[in-house]
């Protein structure tokens, strides 16, 4: 049975820097035997990852990380699927709209960076860096590549964070709408990295109809993990664990977590898979 699972990983289909097959191989080398690919607002890297997983003997769960808004604050939600071969055309069209919006949003952020901070970037080069879904880490990387002497953390805190005049919000999808949309696809829906959510009452958020909470996350302190597990038990949610891996080079993207840095153990994985299976009895995991 599966003994080590990492259920939050990004490829270059969104803002990671590894091709899906390469990421799967790295997970295998790190001793992780079940993973989920959860790229931002896209499913485009899933098929490649599934094929590589079958080839080298590692279980790959199709997933996605949706960007939503709760009380006008950014909240990310994770959706896990048993199968994406029957994903509705309506949802695929929605993801295409999200991608187009992200491109326009990135262009506005680039213009704002010049307007407010005199930071000049080549937008076309950012699109090339992105190679898929454009996200703020691509813009941060472009700032560094352009020769500006700032760290990723400084760039996010001062130039492209939610409170910056250069910031442009994601397409308006409420957290409740995002949950409903994923549930309509028989996805298991999980609140992503609650430790990173600011200026929101976390317990109120957890009360929403999530199936689970990403209670185990690299940025947590021990007391944070204990708190989120306590909430999960209180509100009858499953717990998940995810490294939120983006890059093999810790300095190349904002997120510097390694695959398997945090993980679910065998019993927790069984709970995860049981819940996932229960959402569609006609599919055998």
From TrEMBL:
This is DNA polymerase III PolC-type. Its EC number is 2.7.7.7. The keyword Cell cycle does not apply. It is an enzyme of class 2 (transferase). GO terms for molecular function: 5'-3' DNA exonuclease activity; 5'-3' RNA exonuclease activity; DNA-directed DNA polymerase activity. Residues 5-70 form the Polymerase/histidinol phosphatase N-terminal domain. Keywords: Nucleotidyltransferase, Transferase. Pfam families: PHP (PF02811). It comes from Clostridium coskatii.
């Amino acid at each position: 049975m599966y003994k080590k699972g990492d259920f939050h990983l990004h490829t270059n289909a969104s803002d990671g820097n590894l091709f899906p097959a390469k990421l799967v191989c790295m997970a295998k080398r790190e001793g992780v035997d079940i993973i989920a690919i959860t790229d931002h607002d896209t499913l485009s890297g899933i098929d490649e990852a599934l094929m590589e997983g079958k080839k080298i003997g590692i279980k790959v769960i199709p997933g996605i990380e949706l960007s939503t808004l709760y009380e006008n604050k950014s909240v990310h939600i994770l959706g896990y699927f048993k199968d994406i071969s029957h994903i509705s055309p309506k949802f695929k069209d929605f993801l295409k709209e999200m991608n187009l919006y992200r491109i326009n949003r990135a262009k506005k952020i680039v213009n704002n960076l010049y307007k407010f901070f005199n930071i000049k970037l080549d937008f076309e080069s950012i699109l090339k860096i992105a190679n898929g879904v454009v996200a703020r880490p691509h813009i941060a990387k472009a700032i560094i590549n352009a020769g500006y002497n700032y760290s990723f953390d400084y760039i996010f805190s001062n130039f492209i964070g939610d409170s910056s005049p250069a910031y442009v919000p994601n397409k308006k999808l409420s957290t409740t709408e995002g949950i409903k949309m994923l549930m309509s696809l028989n996805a298991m829906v999980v609140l992503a990295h609650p430790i990173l959510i600011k200026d929101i009452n976390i317990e109120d958020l957890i009360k929403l109809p999530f199936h689970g909470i990403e209670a185990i996350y690299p940025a947590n302190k021990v007391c944070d993990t204990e708190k989120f597990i306590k909430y999960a038990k209180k509100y009858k949610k499953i717990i998940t664990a995810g490294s939120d891996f983006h890059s093999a080079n810790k300095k190349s993207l904002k997120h510097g977590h390694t695959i398997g840095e945090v993980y679910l153990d065998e019993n927790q994985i069984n709970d995860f898979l049981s819940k996932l299976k229960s959402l569609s009895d006609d599919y055998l995991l």
